[in-house]
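User: Hello! I'm new to structural biology and keep hearing that structure can be predicted from sequence alone. Could you demonstrate with HTH CENPB-type domain-containing protein? Please show me the input and the output so I can see what each looks like.

Assistant: Of course. The first part below is the input, the amino acid sequence of HTH CENPB-type domain-containing protein. The second part is the output, the predicted structure written as tokens.
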Amino acid sequence: MDEAIADLKSQEEPNYSATALKYGVNQTRQRLNSTQEKVLIGHINRMTDRGMPPTSQIVKNLAEEIIQGPVGKNWVANFLSDGIDRHHIIAENIYNIDEKGFLISVMATSKRILTRKAYETGKAHNTQDGNKEFISILACILATRIALPPGLIYTGESHDLRDNWVQDLKPGDQVYMGASANGWSSNAFGFQWLKRIFEPHTRDLAKGRKRLLIVDGHSSHVNMRFLDFADQHRIIIMILPPYTTYRLQPLDVNMFQPLATEYTNQQNKILHEGFGMVSITKRLFLRMFTVVWLKTFTPEHIRHGFEKTGIYPLNSAKTIAILFPKIESLPSQPIKPPETPLDYLAIRRAQQSYMRSPSSAKLQHIFHCNYKLSAELSISQHYNRGLINSLAFQKQKNQRSRRLNLVGESGEEAQFFSPTRILKAKEVLAQKDAAEQEEKEAKAVCKAVVAIRKAKMEADKVQRQLERQLAREKKACEALEKQQAREEAKVQKAIEQQLQQTQRKARKAITR
């Protein structure tokens, strides 16, 4: 309509029939002009803000008051559905965004299997470590079965990320992450999601056309900053009526419940494999969430979500049926209870007859033992694998966590960090660690060189001391040898003198 009006204004002699034919504007169908429609929509929004969203009849009455004439019985339905056609919105540009919170270690209620004895004695307990830290996710899906990268909001007083929270983030992973004091979303995070996630990821898909973003009435999606940015970037915000999102919003109808169920399954798997020794913390969340997200946010689930709500393909009758379901009467006749098949009894009797044979009983006993051992072995192997993984995780858990230093670059309190930026921060941290390790190794080498040099000096000192000691000992030995030689010479001289003296006395005696 706006394009047709602009075309008419540019014509020297307006040709209403040709222009109406060119833009597909039928004067008999167009009851309100664009200005009147804006006034009507503004009144609907004001009534909704006061907690009194108008009914179809009230909207019809208001339209008739504006044009001072009657409208058709299907005018309201056409007015609601014509918005998509009027803005030329195609399926590739219809989105739904909402948020969901996770208590990291609190599992949803589910059925458990236990023995009657454990149930009757009251000894059955479900293992949970009581960690109630909160993480929010902002999810957005497209009518053409596509999911945009999710935004995760961790609990962190510094609003920064820690390296052990993102240790499982790999190149190619599509997830944005941020942190708030309590892990909740806010107006600031809603705006950051629209600016940093939604607009960049949908800009090329839109190809210049308008985008329809379906939201609930939460303040993080409905505030002036959010709406102004949307208006500047050709994003139309559609706010669902209060208390209807659990029926009309595709994410609530067909996505979030399977997501929560699968998350509980992952919790159970980790707790049972680790015999309850593994604490589910923020270190494990990304690993679990990645598996859960890929299993639940599939093209089929997304398609069913939009179909069930009647948003796409557009089906106003289905939407009305969802909001005002018909109450069906209960069947008048009772349901016939199932009967036990006779052939099963015959098979059972034949089996009992066969087992009465002595040889068959021994053979059956052997089989039972084998079955028992095989089952116990399989269970033991299963738990051993879980314990190995638990020990590996506990080893990682003891490592000190560090900030990635992502906050502060933009000066905004709420920030979503892209996977590329997170991986780059991890790389910077790894390079810093490598440099520190290299410096540590260099210091260790220098220390070793100094120690070797000192040891060599000590060894040289000891060597010199030994050499001096040997020299002294050698000198002492030489002195001792000389002393001994002198003593020997002296003794020899005394012997010779004694011998000469004896010979002289003998000669004197002979001469007499």
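User: So the tokens describe the shape?

Assistant: Right, they're a compact way of writing down the 3D structure. Reading them back into a model, for example: Confidence is low (pLDDT under 50) at residues 112-116, 338-344.
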